[in-house]
Amino acid sequence: MASAKEQYLIPSRDRYIIPLFILVVMDTAVFIGSFILAYALRFSPLMMELVPPPEIPPLRPYFVLSIAIAALGILVFERFGFYLHRYGLERRSGPIGLVAAVIVSYVFIMAILFNYRGMSFSRLTVAFSLPITSVLICGAHVCLHRIHEKMVENGIAFSRTALIGPFDRCTELLRKMHHACGSEYHVLGYIGMSQEGHGKSRVSLPLLGNLDNLVGIIKENRLDRVILDLPKDNPGLARKVINTCREQNVQYQLVPELFDVLTSLDNVEEAGVLPTILLDETPLAGQGFHFKRIFDVVIAGSLLVTLSPIMALVALLIKLDSTGEVIYCQERIGNDGRFFTMYKFRTMTADAENDTGPIWAKADDPRCTRVGRLLRRTNLDELPQFLNVVRGDMSVVGPRPERPYFVNKFKNAIPGYMRRHVVKSGITGWAQVNGLRGDTSVEERTRFDMYYIKHWSILLDIKILWRTLTSFKNAY
Questions:
Q1: Collapsing DSSP states into helix, strand and coil, what is residue 430?
Q2: Which of 307, 305, 377 is nearest to 347 (CA)?
Q3: Of 104, 110, 397, 447, whose CA is between 20 and 30 Å from 421?
C-alpha cells in the first residue's frame, strides 16, 4: 500500500499538463474578464457623464475582441517563457515580468486595432483594460503562489528528483527534506556510488543505479533535478557529475559540505528545510529573462521594419548573383538544447557542403559567392535572424547557436560547453565582437560565452550591439 507521502505525488503524465492547464485557463479568464470589466467601467453612468460617447455599443463585439486579446496574450506569455518548466503553479517570473508581458500584448493589440477597418472600438476601453489586466494578473499570480506553497506543505510534489551519494547520507538528506510537512521534490530514489551494486535495493529509498550509468538513469527516469550529497574528499567526482548534468540539461544542487571544495557557489536554496547550493545561476534567470525578452522584441521588431528595404535589396542581389534559395535554413541547437531552424541570407553555393560535410567557413573560402563575401564581411547575412528573435527561438545578443554536429563534437571535449545552452542563442555575442567566430578557438569562445552568461546586463547587451557595428574580425 502506498504511503501517505506517495499518495500526494503528482503522476508523471500530469505534472506538466495540470499546472500548465490551470495557468492558461487563469490567464485567459483574466484577459477576458479585464476587458469586459473595462467595457463596464467605460460605459458606466459616471464615465458617460464625464466623457459622453456617441452611443453605447453592444457588448458582443467587445466580448469577441476580449477573446482575441486573450489568445494574443497567451501567445505573448508563451514567448516570454511563462509556461516553460512547469513543475508547479509558480512562474519563472515576478509581477514586474508579468506586467511587462501584458504591456507588450497590448502594444500588439493597439497596433492591430489601429489598422482594423471594421468596427471602431472605444479607445478608453482599451486604455482602461491595460491597468486592470496588470493588477488582476499580479493578484492571480500571488494567489497561485500561495496555493503552490500550501500544496508543497502538504507533500504534493512536482519535480522528479534523484539524490546522489552513499545510501546513509541520502537517507538522512531525504529525512530532512520531509521533516517540515513536505517538499516540492518528488524523490524517485538515490544514485549510489560505483561500488554499490546495480542489483542492490532499499525499501525506504530505492536504488536507481550507480554513477557509472548516470546518463542512462537520467533519461530512463526523466529526471528534472539531482541533489548531490557526495563525500567532500572526492571533488573530482562531484565535478564529473555536474558536467554530466549540464550536458543533459538537468538542474543540480549541492549540500553545504561541498562548499569548500567547489567554486561557483552562488545561491542558497531550500530543499525542504535543508539548505543546498544552487549552482550556475545567471542574471538572466527570473526578472532578467523578461527584461531581455522585452529588449529583444523592441530591437528586433524595430530593425525588421527599418531595414526591410535593405533586406529586399540583398535578396535581389543574391538572386541575381547565383542560383539557389535566397534564405538559407539550417538546424541549430539553442536554449535548453532545443532544436530550431535558423534563417540566414545564403552566402555560399547551393551545394557548399556536399563534398566536405559540416565545416566552418575560412578566409577566402571558395564556396562563397561574390555577394556572399560582402554579406559576411558586413554581417548583413545575419539580418533574417531577427525573425528568429521575434519568434522566440533566439535573442539579439547571446552565445551563437551551433549545429548539432559541432555540439556533439565539443560537448564532451570542452568543459562547460553545454552551459552555453542555459540561455537563448544570439545573433551577436561577446565572443563574436572579440573576434572569436568561424574557425577560431572553441575553448576561448566558450570562455567568453561563460563570461557573458555570468555578467549579463542590458548595458552589456547595448555595448555588444554597438561593437557589432564595427567588429568584422574573422567575418568570412
A1: helix
A2: 377
A3: 104
Residue 350: count other Cβ atoms within 10 Å of its Cβ.
12
Q: For cell 551494486, what's the residue?
A: 197
Is 5 a residue whose pLDDT tops 70?
no
Residues 440, 449: contact at Cβ < 8 Å?
no
> Nearest-CA neighbor of 89 among 36, 142, 28?
142
Q: How far apart are CA 218 and CA 311, in angstroms?
A: 45
Strands (E), 420-465: 426-428
Which of 138, 206, 152 has its CA nearest to residue 180?
Answer: 152
CB 416 within 8 A of CB 450: yes
Q: 140 — phi, psi (to 5°)?
A: -65, -35
Distance between CA atoms of residues 195 and 234, nearest Å = 14
Identify the helix (H) or strand (E) that includes residue 112: helix 95-115
Of all residues in the chain, what percent are helix, strand and coil, respectively (each to 5)? 50, 15, 35
DSSP string, 382-413: GTTHHHHHHHTS-EEESSPPB-HHHHHHHTTT
First to last CA, the chain: 66
In one letter, which amino acid is 446?
T
Hey, is 169 helix, strand or coil? helix
Instruction: Say if pTM beats, i.e. exceeds, 0.90.
Output: no
With CA atoms as reference, report the closest residue to 184 among 334, 59, 342, 9: 9
- Please enumerate in sequence order all residues whose Cβ is within 8 A of that of 356, keeping only pairs 6 or more positions apart, or say none: none
* Residue corresponding to grid cell 547571446: 398
What is the pLDDT confidence band of residue 203, given thresholds at 50, 70 and 90? very low
C-alpha cell at 289: 529573462
Residue 163 grid cell: 539524490
- Cβ atoms of 321 and 370 within 8 Å: the answer is yes
φ, ψ of residue 117 to 5 degrees: the values are: -105, 10
How many Å apart are CA 79 and CA 372, to the nearest integer? 32
pLDDT for residue 92: 66
User: What is d(CA 205, CA 3) in angstroms, rounded to the nearest whole number?
Assistant: 13
Say which residue the cell 568543459 belongs to.
Answer: 415
Centre a 10 Å sphere on the Cβ of residue 132 and count the other Cβ atoms it contains: 18
- Label residues 13-37 b or e (16+ Cβ within 10 Å = b): eebeebbeeebbebbbebbbbbbbb
